[in-house]
Every structure is written in C-alpha cells, then in structure tokens.
Write a structure and sequence with these properties.
Blueprint lengths: L16 H69 L1 H20 L1
C-alpha cells in the first residue's frame, strides 16, 4: 500500500512582485534618510565640540596674555627702579651689552 501524505500547510498567498519592489525601494530611501540624519548629527556634534575647544583655547590665551602683561609691567617697574637708583651703572651696563652685541653681529 502506498501512502501519500499531503502537506497540511495552506498555499501561500501569491506574492505581488510590484508591491515587494515598491516596499524595498521605500525601505532603501528610509535607510538613506536615517544614514543622512546620523551623519549630519555627527557633524553637528563635532562642530559643537570644536566650538567648545576653540572657546577654551581663547580663554586660556586671554589668561596667558593677562599674566604676561602683568609680569611685563612688574619687570618694567623693577627696571625703572634700578635705573633711577643707579643711573651711571645702568648707562655703563647698557653700553657694555651694546658693545658685546655689536661685536657678535659683526662676526
């Protein structure tokens, strides 16, 4: 006796190829839009970070400028005090430094 078994699964509904192609096209465009948004978000984040770093650099540069300016003013006042206290010594030191510098440049 030969036994035949029939599949108990129901036949699948016919697939509409055009609908499937349209769905894949929509999926593709949605994926492209998501990737684009991710890229622009990354660029925006990088831009924000760059602006923050630039701001920090600017603040540090301003602080350094202020410190150097203050230190320069203190040094000028100290030099002025020494020159006022000993003018002849200051002139002789300036002459000596100028003479040595001119000899080094001429070589």
């Amino acid at each position: 006796m030969k036994r035949t078994t029939k599949s108990k699964r129901k036949a699948a509904a016919p697939v509409d190829l055009d609908v499937l192609i349209d769905d894949i096209g929509a999926l593709k465009s949605d994926f492209a839009a998501i990737v684009s948004q991710i890229k622009s978000g990354a660029v925006d984040h990088a831009s924000e970070r760059a602006e923050q770093l630039l701001s920090q650099l600017s603040e540090r540069a301003n602080d350094l400028y202020d410190t150097v300016s203050e230190q320069g003013a203190v040094s000028v006042e100290a030099a002025r005090g020494h020159i006022t206290a000993r003018p002849l010594t200051a002139v002789l030191v300036a002459f000596g430094v100028g003479f040595i510098a001119s000899r080094m440049v001429l070589r």
